[in-house]
Amino acid sequence: xxxxxxxxxxxxxxxxxxxxxxxxxxxxxxxxxxxxxxxxxxxxxxxxxxxxxxxxxxxxxxxxxxxxxxxxxxxxxxxxxx
Length: 82
Fold this sequence. Notes:
By secondary structure, this protein is mostly helical. The chain has helices spanning 4-9, 20-34, 39-43, 46-49, 54-60, 64-70, 72-81.
């Protein structure tokens, strides 16, 4: 439960909070990509497909840390397929 001072300081912070699911999926994608797996194979994993929707995947690809880790060209190529 949020503390009252935190709510008073930023009452709309929940609108910008990242989903823990999306955070875990982003970490998984980066980790598997660094192991040398192709992005399409990673995104077809049951670990990914059973946990997030296609809309959530799009949000994951909006994260700057994921773009830096995978490369802008890789992310752009994937987003153009969606």
